[in-house]
């Protein structure tokens, strides 16, 4: 009786249903893209299914350690991820060949596999942030300005280490994700408003200033701030869609594909626009063309449900495990920023950056890392479920 | 208490912040959905229209050029089919795609004929060709990209490509073997092609095996086609070739100087067009109508429909007025007498190079034969320069006296039967001017028959208003007289375009010194082309009608059968440019004079033509013509132009001719080249006519 009850904690039906829905949509989207003749002879659906299967394996494995063990392991996991990023940074092109200007992958010659450490790093980053914040909160039950500044210092320190390497690899999108996650974590770590306002004000000023310089003095920002031309082009293009000097080819095709899906979509196998590499960063456009407004807004709704579930889980967990709660908040911000940036880019409200739509885009590293994160969340949910029962008793 | 409160406040801080954050998430997601609605619902149709927008392109498929036949329907210019392999690239084709095609094609065709040719062709492959090829192979592009510095990576595509080619090492391209080079030769041809326009990959020496192999494998060779192309073929070799003209090669395409005109007329850049001679004159007829296929491509570049918009039609065939058998014989005749003159008096005739002749139908203007033989002194070789009949103008001498006589009648200064006393004319301060001999009293007909210069001088002086010539006194005449006579001459076609259907003809030199009136009146001043003289004598022969000379008699629609003429499309009718103003009775006088020149003793051509059964008439002429050094202008020698015009039979002329042999040396016993040519020209004409009647009779008997 007890055993079966305990066993049932491991069946988080809502999370399982959400995951199954995401897997199905992902595979359907890639399947739809593969109907274009340009994909002839390629089978990304199968590969994606394999990644998901491995990912599910990770999710299952992550149910064995308890949260405390994970918390204790988190500094080592984080350290390992930073070492990986550093290794990538110093690797020669023979094992880390830049792709489209960004050196984000280990892709040794002769191996069919390529690993993107920054994707895994995000999860390690969230895990370690959650551990640090929760430890800090246990240590300083009474928060003072001083302790808050200390916490802020820790978070920023944890942030700077990985993005020091990532930004060097010209992976602007990933750096942005790290910064965003850190920002949310600062906000929800309970740090005094005054400090946060100061930070937000300062941060906004820096960001606004940077954009202003890019838009007003594109050449200067390239020479002095070290931005790459393509980054500048993207920002300029975002502010001024008529700015021509950039390669918006993929975007132009994408918005045409998405728009032409209209209300109900064209259905699988009837796609008309070939977008290069559509199965990865532009998968949402394929979904939009295939399933129309109805389908694509349901996808947004599904993300919203996932985020809401994470929020609720985090809030509940907060009472007994701050570590678990901050994992939820971190993962929530990760999913959110990827979703908003990627879909925002495809519908034309955000600039073009090469970051994938988590859980849907094709990609081994991104799927595996997201599934590891999902495994952690699942573990937290299981723990919460057990706690609930315990409290109930 | 405060402590607890504080703690509580602390605790609640996080959920509130989360709720605010989540509200923002909600708002942002709403923004996404609203924007999604705008893109998919509001603008959805617009996007769909953009996708559905198609692009129409037309491809033109060349058709064979029209053929050219002579008046007896013997083929003069034919099309020789040559197998050719063409490439029509689809839209948006990449260098890599072309390489694939080249690789496949190299299995079936070779771009050279033999080992020698192979060496030669391989030599045309530049390092750049090799590098471009190597760059496309396997993962070489990635390899080279790695060699780029950060700066170089930011260059625009074209510049970056240049830099990348530079970074390819010599030992890398040295690895390429013969097979690669064969592929490169093909690829180079493919690279020349414009999108959706057929480009010939190989058309020289395509063997029937190659043609068949390619034709069998067309499905594996996107854009490749095996077709037949045509080369101009001249079964009669050099005969008249430079009058027929030439067409451009595929490589040269339409002449760049008139690019826009040709493009406006619907030519493609690599079309072969007539650029000289009749090929140019009748380009619009000969070119035919290209088959036009309209391809509809969508946004993706896929061809979704192909429709034949215009059916192709081979160029129309020309039937010339030329009688090629007669032409061949005339060429031989003219060359023979040119040779004779040069060989008999090599020194005196050292400036003799050309002999020109034209034979035409005086009533219709049909050019029966036209020969220009040229002795190339540098190569010691006789060459066909028939175009000189149209291009080169010479002083004609006395042959124009018929026109001078008629001018005299017309202006009223002389009339039929008028006599003048032929004795040397001595005007104060000038050289004596005289006829060949002093003839005493001569009337108009005698003046023509014996070629009296003095008679013509009297006409000219009177036309200038001078009726009172006295030996050793100065004379006065109106300066407008020369222009007046020139105007009369132009009624005969002298000094004006004859209107021949040819891209170019000269009109001759017109002197600007009215004082030379007397010389002018005997053909010693202005120069005229041989065809102008032909038109002039035709006008006299046919009773005063200036007819337009022409090369093309009929235009026929093409038929698929080889060597056969299709239905008549258009007949070129005789065109009368003008009727001379002179009265018929005056023309009769000149005709009689011309008849006597040829047929009565004492006529200047009687020795040659007396007793000919075909009743010839005409006029001889010898014009003094000094030869000057081309550069220094130094007077090298005095020479004479031997000229003869005529027609036969005099009462119902069917052939008129003009012969000009310029620059024969001044000497007694000179070879009478022009009369010799004229005699054989007429003899041959009537001989051929007889032969033809004979053959026809035989044919009838056989039937």
Automatic annotation (TrEMBL), chain B:
Stretches assigned to coiled coil: none
Location(s), subcellular: Cell membrane; Membrane
Record-linked Gene3D superfamilies: DD-peptidase/beta-lactamase superfamily, Penicillin-binding protein 2a (Domain 2), Penicillin-binding protein, N-terminal non-catalytic domain, head sub-domain
Catalyses which reaction(s): Preferential cleavage: (Ac)2-L-Lys-D-Ala-|-D-Ala. Also transpeptidation of peptidyl-alanyl moieties that are N-acyl substituents of D-alanine
Ranges for domain Penicillin-binding protein transpeptidase: 356-682
GO process terms (BP): cell wall organization; peptidoglycan biosynthetic process; regulation of cell shape
GO molecular function: penicillin binding; peptidoglycan L,D-transpeptidase activity; serine-type D-Ala-D-Ala carboxypeptidase activity
Record carries keyword Electron transport: no
Main location: membrane
Similarity comment: Belongs to the transpeptidase family.
Organism from which the protein derives: Cerasibacillus terrae
One Pfam family it belongs to: PBP_dimer
Keyword annotations from UniProtKB, A to Z: Cell membrane, Cell shape, Cell wall biogenesis/degradation, Membrane, Peptidoglycan synthesis, Transmembrane, Transmembrane helix
Identification of the protein by name: serine-type D-Ala-D-Ala carboxypeptidase
EC numbers on record: 3.4.16.4
Residues spanning the membrane: 20-42
Topological category with respect to the lipid bilayer: Single-pass membrane protein
GO CC, alphabetical: plasma membrane
This protein's pathway: Cell wall biogenesis; peptidoglycan biosynthesis
Domain Penicillin-binding protein dimerisation: start-end pairs: 60-305
InterPro entries in the record: Beta-lactam/transpept, Beta-lactam/transpept-like, PBP_dimer, PBP_dimer_sf, PCN-bd_Tpept
């Amino acid at each position: 009786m007890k055993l079966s009850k305990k066993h049932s904690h491991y069946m988080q039906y809502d999370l399982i249903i959400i995951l199954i829905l995401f897997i199905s949509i992902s595979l359907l989207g890639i399947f739809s893209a593969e109907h274009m003749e340009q994909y002839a002879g390629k089978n990304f659906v199968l590969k994606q299914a394999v990644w998901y299967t491995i990912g599910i394996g990770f999710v299952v494995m992550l149910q064995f350690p308890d949260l405390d063990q994970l918390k204790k392991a988190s500094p080592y996991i984080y350290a390992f991820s930073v070492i990986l990023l550093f290794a990538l940074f110093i690797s020669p092109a023979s094992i880390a060949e830049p792709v489209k200007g960004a050196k984000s992958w280990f892709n040794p010659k002769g191996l069919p596999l390529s690993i993107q450490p920054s994707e895994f790093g995000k999860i390690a980053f969230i895990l370690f942030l959650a551990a640090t914040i929760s430890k800090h909160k246990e240590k300083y039950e009474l928060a003072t300005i001083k302790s808050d500044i200390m916490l802020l210092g820790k978070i920023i320190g944890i942030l700077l280490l990985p993005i020091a390497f990532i930004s060097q690899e010209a992976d602007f999108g990933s750096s942005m994700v790290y910064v965003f996650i850190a920002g949310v974590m600062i906000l929800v770590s309970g740090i005094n408003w005054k400090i946060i306002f100061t930070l937000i004000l300062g941060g906004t000023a820096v960001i606004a200033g940077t954009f202003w310089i890019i838009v007003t003095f594109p050449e200067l920002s390239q020479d002095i701030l070290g931005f790459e031309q393509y980054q500048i082009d993207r920002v300029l293009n975002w502010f001024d869609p008529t700015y021509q000097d950039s390669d918006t080819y993929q975007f132009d095709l994408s918005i045409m594909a998405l728009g032409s899906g209209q209300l109900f979509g064209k259905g699988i196998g009837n796609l008309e626009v070939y977008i290069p590499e559509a199965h990865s960063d532009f998968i949402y456009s394929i979904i939009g063309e295939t399933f129309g407004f109805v389908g694509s807004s349901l996808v947004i709704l599904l993300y919203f449900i996932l985020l809401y579930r994470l929020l609720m889980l985090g809030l509940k967990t907060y009472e007994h495990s701050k570590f678990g709660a901050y994992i939820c908040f971190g993962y929530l911000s990760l999913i959110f920023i990827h979703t908003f940036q990627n879909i925002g880019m495809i519908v034309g409200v955000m600039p073009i950056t090469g970051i994938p739509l988590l859980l849907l885009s094709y990609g081994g590293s991104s799927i595996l890392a997201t599934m590891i994160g999902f495994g952690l969340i699942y573990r937290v949910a299981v723990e919460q479920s057990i706690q609930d029962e315990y409290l109930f008793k | 208490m405060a402590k607890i409160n504080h703690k509580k406040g602390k605790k609640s801080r996080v959920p509130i912040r989360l709720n605010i954050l989540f509200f923002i998430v909600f708002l942002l997601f709403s923004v996404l959905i609203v924007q999604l609605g705008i893109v998919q619902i509001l603008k959805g149709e617009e996007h769909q229209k953009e996708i559905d927008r198609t692009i129409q392109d037309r491809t033109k498929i060349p058709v064979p050029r029209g053929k050219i036949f002579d008046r007896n329907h013997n083929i003069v210019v034919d099309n020789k089919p040559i197998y050719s392999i063409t490439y029509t690239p689809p839209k948006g084709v990449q260098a890599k795609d072309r390489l694939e095609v080249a690789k496949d094609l190299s299995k079936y065709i070779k771009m050279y004929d033999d080992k020698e040719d192979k060496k030669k062709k391989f030599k045309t492959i530049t390092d750049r060709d090799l590098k471009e090829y190597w760059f496309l192979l396997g993962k070489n592009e990635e390899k080279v990209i790695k060699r780029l510095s950060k700066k170089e990576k930011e260059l625009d595509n074209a510049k970056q490509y240049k830099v990348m080619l530079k970074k390819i090492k010599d030992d890398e391209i040295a690895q390429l073997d013969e097979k690669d080079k064969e592929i490169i030769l093909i690829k180079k041809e493919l690279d020349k092609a414009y999108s959706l326009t057929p480009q010939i990959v190989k058309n020289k020496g395509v063997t029937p095996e190659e043609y068949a192999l390619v034709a069998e494998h067309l499905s594996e060779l996107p854009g490749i086609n095996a077709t037949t192309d045509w080369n101009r073929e001249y079964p009669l070799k050099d005969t008249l070739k430079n009058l027929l003209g030439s067409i451009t090669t595929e490589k040269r395409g339409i002449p760049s100087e008139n690019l826009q005109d040709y493009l406006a007329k619907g030519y493609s850049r690599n079309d072969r067009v007539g650029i000289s001679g009749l090929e140019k004159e009748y380009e619009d007829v000969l070119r035919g109508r290209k088959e036009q296929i309209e391809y509809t491509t969508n946004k993706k570049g896929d061809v979704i429909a192909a429709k034949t918009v215009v059916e192709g039609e081979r160029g129309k065939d020309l039937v010339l007025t030329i009688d090629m058998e007669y032409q061949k014989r005339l060429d031989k005749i003219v060359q023979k007498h040119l040779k004779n003159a040069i060989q008999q008096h090599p020194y005196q005739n050292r400036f003799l190079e050309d002999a020109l002749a034209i034979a035409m139908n005086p009533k219709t203007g049909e050019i029966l034969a036209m020969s220009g033989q040229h002795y190339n002194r540098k190569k010691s070789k006789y060459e066909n320069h028939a175009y000189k009949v149209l291009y080169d103008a010479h002083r004609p001498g006395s042959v124009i006296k018929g026109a001078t006589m008629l001018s005299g009648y017309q202006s009223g200064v002389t009339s039929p039967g008028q006599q003048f006393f032929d004795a040397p004319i001595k005007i104060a301060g000038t050289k004596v001017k005289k006829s060949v001999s002093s003839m005493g009293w001569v009337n108009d007909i005698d003046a023509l028959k014996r070629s009296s210069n003095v008679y013509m001088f009297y006409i000219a002086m009177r036309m200038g208003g001078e009726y009172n010539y006295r030996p050793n006194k100065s004379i006065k005449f109106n300066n407008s007289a020369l222009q007046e006579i020139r105007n009369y001459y132009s009624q005969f076609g002298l000094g004006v375009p004859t209107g021949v259907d040819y891209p170019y003809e000269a009109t001759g030199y017109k002197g600007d010194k009215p004082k030379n009136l007397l010389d002018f009146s005997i053909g010693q001043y202005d120069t005229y082309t041989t065809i102008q003289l032909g038109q002039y004598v035709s006008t006299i022969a046919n009773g005063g009608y200036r007819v337009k000379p022409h090369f093309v008699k009929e235009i026929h629609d093409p038929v698929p059968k080889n060597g056969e003429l299709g239905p008549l499309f258009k007949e070129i009718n005789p065109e009368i440019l003008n009727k001379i103003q002179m009265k018929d009775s005056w023309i009769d006088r000149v005709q009689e004079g011309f008849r006597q020149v040829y047929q009565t003793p004492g006529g200047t051509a009687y020795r040659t033509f007396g007793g000919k059964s075909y009743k010839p008439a005409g006029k001889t002429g010898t014009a003094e013509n000094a030869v000057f050094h081309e550069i220094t202008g130094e007077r090298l020698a005095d020479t004479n132009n031997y000229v003869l015009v005529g027609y036969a039979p005099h009462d119902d002329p069917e052939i008129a001719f003009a012969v000009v042999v310029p620059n024969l040396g001044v000497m007694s016993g000179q070879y009478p080249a022009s009369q010799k040519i004229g005699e054989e020209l007429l003899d041959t004409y009537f001989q051929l006519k007889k032969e033809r009647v004979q053959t026809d009779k035989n044919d009838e008997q056989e039937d």
